[in-house]
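Narrative of activities, Objective 1.

The group set out to show that a structural description can be obtained from nothing but a protein's sequence at a throughput compatible with the screening campaign. Below is one input-output pair from the validation batch, recorded exactly as produced.
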Amino acid sequence: MSANDHIYNCYAPPPQEFVRGEGVYLYTEDGDKYLDFIAGIAVNGLGHGHPALLKALKDQADKVWHLSGMFRVQDQFKLADKFCAATFADKVFFTNSGAEAVEAAIKTARRCQFVEGHPDRYEILTSQGAFHGRTIATINAGGNPKYMEGFGPVMPGFINLPFGDLDAMKAAINEKTAAILLEPVQGEGGVRALPVQFLKDVRALCDEHGLLLVYDEVQCGAGRTGKLFAHQWADGAADPDIMAVAKGMGGGFPLGACLATERAAAGMVIGTHGSTYGGGPLAMAVGNAVFDEVTRPELLENVIKMSNYMNQQFEALKDAHPDVVEDVRGKGLMCGMKLKKKALDVRNLARDHNLLVGNAGDNVLRMVPPLILTEDNVREAIAILDKVFTQAKEMDDFEA
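Output recorded for this entry:
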């Protein structure tokens, strides 16, 4: 029996085993070098081996590893202050993952309606194609039948609506509606960005009906679109009441957070929620270091510059390979190409050429590279994709 036989068969990893990372590259034990344009699925926003993150973790490891919420963690207060100063939020609850952050957001929204005298308001409107995590509640919020199959009956309380359809949202609001939950840019759903005006319209709709607006910025936050959070492109006109963040905010260390306004968080009092590991000293030390890096103007300027350059190059690839590329989409360094060939097969072929990318719904090749990448890194990736698309064009079994 091999070592893999004792692991749940939930993943099918390739044979490569990476033992070292540096910047935008990963290395195998044999020294093979791979350009990492998936970054742990939008997690390693500062690349691999970032010195500020390493120092923060090592320094804290020499002090104290874990305390739990029973005791004060000074770095937790510091990071919460930073989040609130940079966003709409007044309150923060720290978690270990994005799914936990979304769970906290769901509970916060429902609890807010409860303490405001509306216990029957518990339904949350969500979008088709959404991905909010892998817990029982979050797969039901996402509404993807593939992820829900075999896990019992559909959980009440979530109404899944067509992506970007404001009229459908208006029609779905009733006396049970508590909140609207959206990803400003869908990742798993096919790297689809909601227009800024749509976010503004949903904000107005929530205000009109007394609903909570909840954003899932687990993937599209942490500077990935050129703003600290994607909804901030609306310049305050589409701010949420509650927001879930994770992934890039930990830079590779497990860290998530639920951010909320004073009003939204008013019902989350002692005994209503908790997390043994959430907000622990190690995570908070790294989280503070990550926050300081991803809020640097130079880094966010690089995201905008590199995303514009990469989008131009993707459009050129589309023109050069019309039999392979159907559409270019995304926002910032959350990029995708809808393909006419199987995106999964193209992803695997790219890996054979030492480029690591992902795939997503709607047959999209997904790229979420580290935010520190350079034009040279982009040119290297484009050259590989050009070869990959040329090969894919000739492969009949790659047909979508």
